Amino acid sequence: MADSLALWHAEHVNFARLLDLLEEQVAEFHQGERPDYALMSDILYYMRNFADRVHHPPEDVAYARLAERDPGVQLQVNRLLQEHCVIAIAGEELLNCLKEISEDVLAPRSHLEAATATYLVYYRHHLATEERLVMPRAAQVLTGEDWAAVAAAVPAGSDPLFGDDMLERFEVLRRQIDRVAQAPGHDPA
Ligand SMILES: [Fe+2]
Ligand SMILES: [Fe+2]
User: Fold this and answer.
1) Distance 112 CA to ligand 1 centre (A)
2) What are the transmembrane regions (predicted)?
C-alpha cells in the first residue's frame, strides 16, 4: 500500500509541476511575449499519453474498490471518474489548439488562453480532491488485495518524462522542470 500511495502522490507532484509550467507559458501572453508553443505541446502530449492513459486506469480501480468498501464516497468517486473524461477532452482540445497555431492557422489568441485556463482549473481541482479527500480515505479502507488490484492495473512501460528511459522529445521540457526545481524558494511538495 505504502508504495502505491507514494507513487500515486509522486505522479501528482509531477503533474502539478507541469501545470505550473503551462501557466508560466500562458502568462507570457499577458506580458506581450510569445509563449513557447512547442513546450506547451510537449506538456500536453505527456499529459494525454501518460497521465490519461497510465495514471488514470489504476485510479479507476482504486475508486471502484473504495466505493465498495465505503458507499459514502460513491458520489465523490463518480465525480472523479467523470473528471477523468472531462480532463481528457479538455487536454485534446488544448492540444488541437496548439496544433492549429503550429500549422499557422489564424486561431484567435483568446481561444488558446481559454482552453489552457479550463485545463488548469479542471486539473488542479481534480488533483486537490484526490490528495485531500480520496487518497487519505483509500489509505484507511483499501485492503492488501485491493492494492494488489490497483498495482496490476498499471500499464506496462516506464514514465517517458520523469522515468529512467526519457523520450528524446522531452529533453527541453526536462531541462525546464529542472530549472524550476533548482530555483530559489521552490517548494517540491
Ligand atoms: Fe484522477
Ligand atoms: Fe490522480
Assistant:
1) 24
2) none
